[in-house]
Amino acid sequence: MDKATFEQLYRDMLPGFYRLAQSVLRNPADAQDAVQQAALKAWMAADRIRPGNERAYLTRIVINESRNIQRYRMRVLPAAEFREEGYDPPDRELAWAIDSLPEHLRLPLLLKYMEGYSEKEAASALGIGMAALKGRLYRARRLLAKELKEEVEWT
Predict the structure, then answer these.
(1) Most buried residue, 3, 92, 108, 147, by most Cβ within 10 Å?
(2) Rounded to 10 degrees, what is the CA torsion of 55, 61, 63, 66?
(3) DSSP 3-state assignment of 60?
(4) What is the pLDDT of residues 46-93, one digit of tens each?
(5) Residues contacting residue 1 through CB under 8 Å, at least 6 positions apart
(6) DSSP state at residue 52
(7) Quick one: how far is CA 53 from the chain centroid?
């Protein structure tokens, strides 16, 4: 992958990467660090990215970098100080309900419904099978519906 193609692809995906890192880290500064570190690592591995799999590959790097920072912060900061307010979504109740989901359910939900990934792309980015992804999406939707106390039609 040449530099111009990589830069354009990364720029196009940057807002989604930031939202994803923000979801994992819940700290804007750490999310920016994760996305920046992911860009560097992705560029260093650009020759290994298979055509057609770029989105999932880059997303996986962002998730891994976010988790690396999260592990580091958990060792450095007391848990009470770790969670900070992030971006202010329009629907606070929904945002709170999504935030309260465990990470293994929250990330598939965000990738599929908020970032528009196909199920195949989301499964690949998360390093799980399609059946596991569908199961996690199902459980996440049910927990959200229960938390929000309303029936929600998911597509």
Answers:
(1) 108
(2) -140
(3) helix
(4) 888 888 888 999 999 999 999 999 888 766 645 455 444 554 444 777
(5) 9, 46, 47, 49, 54
(6) T
(7) 17
